[in-house]
Write a structure and sequence with these properties.
Order of helices and strands of chain B: EEEHEEEHHHEHEHEEHHEEEEEEEEHEEE
Number of domains of chain A: 1
Mean pLDDT of chain A: 83
Number of helices of chain B: 9
Radius of gyration of chain A: 23 Å
Largest sheet of chain B: 6 strands, mixed
Shape of chain A: globular
Structural class of chain A: mainly alpha
Number of strands of chain B: 21
Strand content of chain A: under 5%
Radius of gyration of chain B: 25 Å
Mean pLDDT of chain B: 86
CATH topology of chain A: MetI-like fold
Structural class of chain B: alpha+beta
Largest interface: A-B, 22 and 33 residues
Order of helices and strands of chain A: HHHHHHHHHHHHHHH
Largest sheet of chain A: none
CATH architecture of chain A: Orthogonal Bundle
Distance between the termini of chain B: 36 Å
Oligomer: heterodimer
Strand content of chain B: 25-35%
Low-confidence stretches of chain B: 358-367
Helix content of chain B: 10-25%
C-alpha cells in the first residue's frame, strides 16, 4: 500500500507542476535549500565518520576493530539481532495476519499497542525492564534467589531490543496483507490446500517483499538501538556492551579513532539498509502495480505515516 | 454430480441473508443463480462450496450431506469474481496448484496441465504471470485452475463481471461450449438477466434472500411466478392504474378488470413486444408520438408518448421500423396486445391476458 500511496503523491505533484507553473527561481531555490541542508547536516557528518575512522590509517582502523572488547561488542550485537529479528518477524506475521484477515473485538487496541514502542522514549522502554527485573524490581528478589541475571546482562539487552523493534515487521505487513485480501487464500482452499499449505505457498510469497522490508528495518534498529539498551546494559566492557554502547564508551575514553571505526561499521549497516530498503520498496511497488485487480481502498487511519 | 439444497438459511449477525432456500441441480446441468445484488445468491454459492456454513438446512452433493465437510474435501472448483489467481505464480503453476495439493504424479500432472492449456486456448502462455494476461485470459486461467483437479461441480461467482462487454459475449458462448463438452455440473452467479437467459439451462431467481422462482429461461420469462420476477426478467412496462367503471385506467390506456370494484388500485404490466404499432392512425385505439428510438443492433427499442404524457416502451426490428416509415416525432396508433395484472410481490401472478379488442395480425409478432 505504501507504494501506491507514494505513486499517488507522485502523480499529484506532476499535476501541480503542470497546473501551477511556479517560476524556475522558486523551484531551484527550494531544491537548493533542501540539498544544502542535507549536505551540511547529513552527508558531511557521515563522511566525517569515515574520515575520522581512517584518520590513523588503515592499520589503526583494523586494529581498533580487532580489539577483543570491540569484537565482543560486535558479537553481542549480532547475537541480539539474531534473536530479535526472527522472533519479531514471526510475531509480526501473526499480528498482521490477525489484524488484516479477521474482525474481532479489540482490534484497534491491538494496532495501537503494536505502535507503542514507536511512541515511547527508548529510555522509558529500558526502565520498564529495570522496574520489572532489576534488584529492586517486582521480580528482582525472586530472580536473584534463583541466580538469574536479566538486568545488566545479555537477557535484558535482548528483551529491551525485542520491545523496541517489535512494531517494524507487523507495521509493514498489515497494509500489504489488507491490500492483498484473502481471496487468494480462499482459492487455495477450494483447490484442497490446508491452512498450513495455504500460508506457505500463497500467503507468504505474496507478502514476501513487505516482509523482507520489515525485517531489514527491524534488523537495523536491533543493531543500532542505543537508549533502551544503555539503561539495562550496565556498560560492562567485553560483556554487556553492544556496538552503539561501545562507540560511546570508546569516545568517552578519548579513543576517537577506535570509536569512529566502530561507528563506521554502523554507518555501513545504515547505508546497506537504505539500499536494500529502496530495492524491496521498488519490488513491492512493482508487485502492486502489476496486481490484477484494483485493490479496494484500505483506510488505515491508525497509521499517519511511515515510521 | 447433483446438488441439492434443503431449507438452507444463513444469518450474518442479525441479517437474514438466505431465507430457507431449497432447490435441486441435476447432474450435468448448467444453472444460473440470478438476482439483484444483496439477494443472497453469492452466499448460496459460497455455501455450496463450503466457504460459508449454513445457519440451518442441509446441502447435499450427490445425495450426501456435506454440511460438515470442509471446503478442501468437497472437491469443487470455484471461480472467484476477480479470479483470485495466485499473483506470485505463473499460469502453469496456477493450474498445477490443485494437482500438486492433491499429490498427482508429475507426469500425469504435466499432461493434465497440457490438456487444460490446450482446451482453454492458453498454449504458449504457461510462463506468463497473471498481471501479464488480458482479462479474458485471466478468466480462462481461473476456470482452468478450477477444473484441472477434476472437480465434481464447478461454481462460478459473477464470472463475466470483470471483463468488458465484447469479451463478455465471447466468454458466455465459450462457457456454453465448454459446459457442453465437459458436461460438469455448473452453477454460476450473475446479476445480469440477459446473461442468465443466454447461458443457463435453468435459472434460480433470488431476491432479498428468498427464492422467487426456478425454471428454464423460457418459463421465467413467459410465466413469471410473481411481480418481482416479471419485472426483473426482461423489460416490462409497469403502469399504476385505478378502476373507475369496470375497467382499469392508466392515462388513456384501458384494461378490462372484470369484477374489480370501483376505486381499486392495481398495477398493470406488459412486455415491449406486446405493444402493437401502426402508422395508420385509425387502426389502433390509442394515439401516440414516437419520442425516442434506441438502436440495440437488430432490435430497436422505441418509446411512445401518449397525449397524457404516459410513456410506453415498445420493441421492433429494423425492418418493421423501416416498413412503418417511423422516425422520432412521428404520430402513430398503438395497442397493448397482452398484459398482466401485477399482484403484490409474493402473491402468485395471474395468467397473461389478451386484450379483447380484436386487432389485425400484427407485424411485430413473436419478438
Amino acid at each position: 500500500m505504501s507504494g501506491r500511496v507514494k505513486r499517488r503523491i507522485r502523480e499529484s505533484t506532476n499535476k501541480s507542476q503542470r497546473g501551477a507553473d511556479e517560476t524556475p527561481l522558486v523551484k531551484w531555490t527550494l531544491i537548493g535549500v533542501s540539498g544544502l541542508f542535507l549536505f551540511v547536516f547529513l552527508l558531511l557528518p557521515l563522511v566525517n565518520v569515515f574520515a575520522q575512522a581512517f584518520a590513523g590509517g588503515i592499520r589503526a582502523y583494523f586494529a581498533a576493530l580487532t580489539n577483543p572488547d570491540t569484537r565482543a561488542a560486535i558479537g553481542l550485537t549480532a547475537l541480539t539481532a539474531a534473536i530479535c529479528v526472527p522472533v519479531n518477524a514471526a510475531f509480526g506475521v501473526c499480528a498482521a495476519w490477525a489484524v488484516a484477515k479477521f474482525e474481532f473485538r479489540g482490534k484497534a487496541l491491538l494496532i495501537t499497542l503494536i505502535d507503542l514502542p514507536f511512541s515511547v522514549s527508548p529510555v522509558v522502554a529500558g526502565l520498564i525492564y529495570v522496574v520489572l527485573f532489576g534488584l529492586q524490581g517486582y521480580f528482582g528478589s525472586w530472580l536473584s534467589d534463583h541466580d538469574i541475571r536479566i538486568i545488566f546482562a545479555v537477557p535484558g539487552i535482548v528483551l529491551t531490543t525485542l520491545f523496541v523493534t517489535f512494531p517494524f515487521v507487523a507495521r509493514e505487513l498489515i497494509p500489504v496483507m489488507q491490500a492483498t485480501g484473502n481471496e487468494q487464500e480462499q482459492a487455495a482452499m477450494t483447490l484442497g490446500a490446508s491452512g498450513w499449505q495455504t500460508f506457505w505457498r500463497v500467503t507468504l510469497p505474496s507478502v514476501k517483499w513487505g516482509l523482507l522490508y520489515g525485517v531489514i528495518l527491524c534488523n537495523a534498529r536491533a543493531m543500532g538501538e542505543f537508549g533502551a539498551v544503555s539503561v539495562v546494559s550496565g556498560h560492562i566492557t567485553g560483556l554487556t556492551e553492544t556496538m552503539p554502547i561501545r562507540v560511546e564508551s570508546l569516545f568517552k575514553e578519548y579513543q576517537s579513532t577506535a570509536s569512529f571505526a566502530v561507528a563506521s561499521l554502523l554507518a555501513v549497516l545504515a547505508l546497506a539498509t537504505l539500499i536494500l530498503k529502496s530495492w524491496f520498496e521498488w519490488r513491492q511497488e512493482r508487485q502492486f502495480s502489476s496486481a490484477q485487480i484494483p485493490e479496494p481502498e484500505v483506510v488505515d487511519s491508525s497509521r499517519p505515516g511511515r515510521p | 454430480m447433483s446438488i441439492k439444497l434443503q431449507a438452507v438459511s444463513k444469518i450474518f449477525g442479525e441479517t437474514l441473508a438466505v431465507d430457507s432456500v431449497g432447490f435441486h441441480v441435476a447432474d450435468g446441468e448448467l444453472v444460473a443463480l440470478l438476482g439483484p445484488s444483496g439477494g443472497g445468491k453469492t452466499t448460496v454459492l459460497r455455501m455450496i462450496a463450503g466457504l460459508e456454513m449454513p445457519t440451518s438446512g442441509d446441502i447435499l452433493i450427490r445425495g450426501q450431506r456435506v454440511n460438515d465437510l470442509p471446503v478442501q474435501k468437497r472437491n469443487i472448483g470455484f471461480v472467484f469474481q476477480n479470479y483470485a489467481l495466485f499473483k506470485t505464480m505463473s499460469v502453469h503453476d496456477n493450474i498445477a496448484f490443485g494437482l500438486k495439493i492433491k499429490k498427482w504424479r508429475r507426469a500425469e500432472r504435466e499432461s493434465r496441465i497440457e490438456e487444460m492449456t490446450e482446451l482453454f486456448g492458453l498454449g504458449g502462455l504457461g510462463k506468463r504471470y497473471p498481471h501479464q494476461l488480458s482479462g479474458g485470459q485471466r478468466q480462462r486461467v481461473a476456470i482452468a485452475r478450477a477444473l484441472a483437479p477434476k472437480p465434481n461441480v464447478l461454481l462460478l461467482d459473477e464470472p463475466f463481471g470483470a471483463v468488458d462487454a465484447k469479451i463478455r459475449q465471447e466468454l458466455r458462448e465459450w462457457l456454453v461450449r465448454l459446459h457442453h463438452d465437459l458436461n460438469v455440473t455448473t452453477v454460476f452467479v450473475t446479476h445480469d438477466q440477459e446473461e442468465a437467459m443466454e447461458v443457463a439451462n435453468r435459472i434460480v431467481i433470488f431476491s432479498r434472500g428468498r427464492l422467487e422462482q426456478i425454471g428454464t429461461p423460457r418459463e421465467v420469462y413467459e410465466q413469471p411466478a410473481n411481480e418481482f420476477v416479471a419485472r426483473f426478467i426482461g423489460v416490462m412496462n409497469v403502469l399504476e392504474a385505478t378502476v373507475p367503471r369496470g375497467s382499469a385506467r392508466a392515462g388513456e390506456l384501458e384494461f378490462p378488470a372484470s369484477g374489480a370494484p370501483d376505486g381499486t388500485q392495481m398495477r398493470i404490466g406488459f412486455r415491449p413486444y406486446a405493444v402493437a404499432v401502426s402508422n395508420d392512425l385509425a387502426l389502433y385505439p390509442y394515439q401516440a408520438i414516437l419520442v425516442h428510438t434506441y438502436f440495440l443492433g437488430i432490435l430497436l427499442r422505441v418509446e411512445f408518448e401518449l397525449p397524457s404524457g404516459l410513456v410506453v416502451r415498445g420493441r421492433m426490428t429494423k425492418e418493421e421500423y423501416a416498413v412503418l416509415g417511423l422516425e422520432n416525432g412521428r404520430r402513430v396508433s398503438i395497442q397493448i396486445k397482452a398484459y398482466r395484472i401485477l399482484a403484490r410481490d409474493d402473491a402468485p401472478l395471474g395468467r397473461e391476458l389478451v386484450s379483447p379488442i380484436s386487432t389485425p395480425p400484427h407485424i411485430a409478432e413473436n419478438i
